[in-house]
Amino acid sequence: MVRIKRGFIAKNRRKKILKITKGYRGASKTLRRDANQKAVKALFNSYRHRKNLKRNMRQLWISRINAIVRLRNWNYHSFIWNCRTKNYYLNRKVLAQLAVYDKESFFTIF
């Protein structure tokens, strides 16, 4: 029987990892084991930071709304509660953009 090595399977797997670590510095872009560790760490961090970005952006929107609302001596909680009772269903992102870019229309709406 002819010996068949699984060369292309392993080669493709290694190429996939080295493609991920293409712009890295040092041994982690060329050596297979180091590249694999760096790729796993990078993918894990990118997943975690995507989740944190959503959290941080919501905090930023809330703080922007709170800052503009305090100019009228309200607080954030009562402002959101009044919006809900009056059936103004604008999300926090839109409210924050209104607060930053167009303060006059923000106060005319509310």
UniProtKB/TrEMBL annotation:
> Tell me, what is an example of a GO biological process annotation in this record?
translation
Q: Does the keyword Cell cycle apply?
A: no
Q: Which PROSITE patterns match?
A: RIBOSOMAL_L20
Q: Which GO terms describe its cellular component?
A: chloroplast; ribonucleoprotein complex; ribosome
* Keyword Heme belongs to the record: no
Q: Which GO terms fall under molecular function for this chain's record?
A: rRNA binding; structural constituent of ribosome
Where is the protein situated, by its record's location annotation? Plastid, Chloroplast
Q: Which InterPro entries match?
A: Ribosomal_bL20, RIBOSOMAL_L20_CS, Ribosomal_protein_bL20_C
Predominant cellular place of this UniProt entry's protein: plastid
Keyword tags: Chloroplast, Plastid, Ribonucleoprotein, Ribosomal protein, RNA-binding, rRNA-binding
UniProt-listed Gene3D superfamilies: 6.10.160.10, Ribosomal protein L20
Its annotated function is as follows: Binds directly to 23S ribosomal RNA and is necessary for the in vitro assembly process of the 50S ribosomal subunit. It is not involved in the protein synthesizing functions of that subunit.
The family note in this entry says: Belongs to the bacterial ribosomal protein bL20 family.
Q: What is this protein called?
A: Large ribosomal subunit protein bL20c
The organism named in the record is Codium decorticatum
